[in-house]
Here is the input.
Amino acid sequence: MRDGLADHHGAARGRAGGLTRFFEDIEIGQRRELGSFTFTADAIKKFARQFDPQRFHLDEEEGKKSLFGGLAASGWHVGSVCMKLLVADGQRLAAEAAARGEKVAIWGPSPGFRDLRWIKPVLAGDTISFASEVESLRTSDKRPEWGILQARNTGANQHGEPVFSLLATAFVPRRDRAP
Here is the structure.
């Protein structure tokens, strides 16, 4: 177990982009493989008991009787794991950049997300691989020291089938105007 996440598999190293880059360093289409996570029955139930206590997240038989056809992870669980892997990958990339003596860009908060989709149920035993791909970039009119990035965060199961998607927005510091 690492940082409270069992069965966490880190992302491949050596990609361009990431949370250590300034706005000017980022290009539309840059993709980050964030890592993967296996949703065990115990992890699904533990999350559900605390945050989404619906019958099909708590009991195998109830899950089988539901539209899901088995014990299903809460969509909020899937999204939370994606966020955890996104942050962990960014922290790893920042540490690597700092170790090389590079200036690390400190990203701002996210003003939100949209287009959240739980495409296919995540069932006990599924391993979901998460990725993030930059879809748009623009400078902020109100805060010229920041750029605004939109990235599609996705998850696919062990069969390559999409299960999760959302369009996230983040403030990214501009190199020439960094505070």
Q: What stands out?
A: The longest helix spans residues 75-99.
